[in-house]
TrEMBL record:
It is found in: Cytoplasm, Cytoskeleton, Cilium axoneme. Keywords: Cell projection, Cytoplasm, Cytoskeleton, Repeat, TPR repeat. Gene3D superfamilies: Tetratricopeptide repeat domain. GO terms for cellular component: axoneme; cytoplasm. PROSITE patterns: TPR (PS50005). It holds the Pfam family TPR_12. This is Outer dynein arm-docking complex subunit 4. Its main location: cytoplasm. Residues 127-149 are annotated as: Disordered. TPR repeats lie at residues 278-311.
Length: 437
């Protein structure tokens, strides 16, 4: 286990040979040690030896088929091999291309023949070797990769490599501490070159260029679609404005903003589109409800509930159900209203909202002649209001409890609740409500 852990550390540091050595040492006592097999396979993969890595991943998968890391290792090693060698079925050998090695061989043979003939005193006509060397043949044989390829393989790291090369060439780093700095720079360049070679083997340049073309094409199509689509920020801003205006009681302007948001949200390209749609329906419904357009508001709230259910967003669903319940109650459908509020209740954590919800459910029960349920809701509303110290909802909950007790014939309890409510209404300067009590 210790050797495997150290192998992983070496792997992160880029010391691939040391990582492989530790992984192999961990397998000396038990060649079937699964962690050791995985460490060895990873080290081989990082060295660019994909075939041997695949062999060890396969061995580990055979011994421990339950370990997903071996299955994933087999998959990535296979992909690396297939990407590196390409599709062999498309490979058609021909005499075209770089024949430098062949021409060099012919030239060497001709030179040797001429030398032999000269030693024998014969003068012979030379056979001109064909010279069709490609301009980049020397570079290809010397193993140097074009700068553009290195730049593509390294990406953002290419600027770091340039910086290290400049350090090596800096004449001021020849003495003292400069020697150690140059050594570190050299090590850095060697490490980057190793990674470049690994990435080149893992995914050759022709594959990268093909992928980049596909990516550019995809981005272009996406950009074209988004250019014609409404701005996500603009729609979100309109929804927020509509909600804020409704909260402030400016329902006419809130309705205008909500309608603008509804017109724009249909063309929005965003993962949050459904959330925007639900919020638009709720904002529209709230403004319509406040302007006495109950049926239209009810339709908006119903659509908001449907969207919220599909989103499986508990908070949004609770808010939408509460709005729908309110419209049911306004239409006289108290039973449906109670059903909506009951479904919303478990997802409402705010105690002030709980007090409001219990009060509204209690009033609906009272309208249906269910005084027992109304009193129960009134007491629950009182408890929630007491916890938060919200005096407005304390007042409303006491009035509800008083009316429920009257319906149940508990006149003494009703009188006590009315007296508490009258005193609190006076303290809160609610004169009209105090007179009604």
């Amino acid at each position: 286990n210790c050797l495997c852990s150290r192998s992983r550390c070496y792997l992160q540091l880029g010391e691939l040979d040391a990582a492989l050595t530790d992984a192999e040492d961990s397998l000396k006592e038990n060649p079937e040690f699964n962690k050791g097999l995985f460490a060895k396979a990873e080290a081989l993969y990082s060295k660019g030896e994909f075939e041997f890595a695949l062999l060890n991943f396969h061995k580990g998968q055979h011994l421990r088929p339950d370990m997903a890391q071996f299955r994933l290792g087999v998959q990535k090693a296979r992909e690396a091999i297939e990407t590196a060698i390409g599709d062999t079925r498309r490979c058609q050998l021909s005499s075209e291309g770089d024949l430098t090695l062949y021409h060099d061989f012919v030239a060497e043979q001709e030179a040797a023949r001429i030398a032999r003939n000269k030693r024998g005193g014969k003068k012979v006509a030379t056979m001109a070797a064909p010279s069709r060397r490609r301009p980049d043949a020397h570079r290809a044989r010397s193993g140097k990769k074009p700068t553009s390829n290195v730049k593509q393989l390294l990406g953002e790291l290419y600027t770091d490599r340039e910086y290290l090369e400049n350090l090596l060439a800096d004449p001021s780093l020849k003495l003292g501490e400069g020697t150690s700095v140059k050594s570190l720079a050299k090590n850095g360049i060697q490490y980057l070159d190793k990674r470049t070679e690994f990435w080149r083997q893992q995914k050759p340049m022709y594959v990268r260029k093909s992928e980049q073309r596909e990516l550019r094409s995809t981005k272009s199509n996406t950009t074209q679609r988004m250019a014609t689509a409404p701005s996500v920020d603009r729609v979100a801003r309109l929804i927020e404005q509509a909600e804020n205006l409704n909260d402030k009681g400016n329902f006419d302007t809130g309705l205008e903003k909500a309608e603008q948001a509804k017109a724009g949200v249909a063309g929005v390209i965003s993962a949050d589109k459904d959330l925007f749609v639900a919020r638009v329906h709720n904002a529209l419904g709230t403004a319509l409800f406040a302007t006495s357009k109950i049926d239209q508001a009810h339709d908006e709230f119903s659509q908001a509930v449907d969207v919220a259910r599909n989103l499986k967003d508990p908070e949004l669903l609770a808010r939408s159900l509460s709005n729908l319940a309110k419209s049911h109650a306004a239409k006289g459908n108290f039973d449906a209203a109670v059903t909506c509020w009951s479904e919303a209740q478990p997802n409402i954590t705010d105690r002030v909202e709980q007090s409001w919800l219990q009060h509204e459910m209690g009033r609906a029960h009272l309208e249906m002649g269910k005084a027992d349920e109304a009193l129960e809701c009134g007491l629950a509303a009182e408890r929630a209001a007491n916890e938060t110290g919200d005096q407005d909802w304390q007042l409303h909950s006491w009035i509800l409890c008083a009316q429920a007790n009257v319906a149940l014939g508990g006149h003494q309890s009703a009188l006590s609740y009315y007296e508490q409510a009258a005193q609190l209404a006076q303290r809160l300067h609610k004169s009209s409500l105090h007179d009604a009590i």
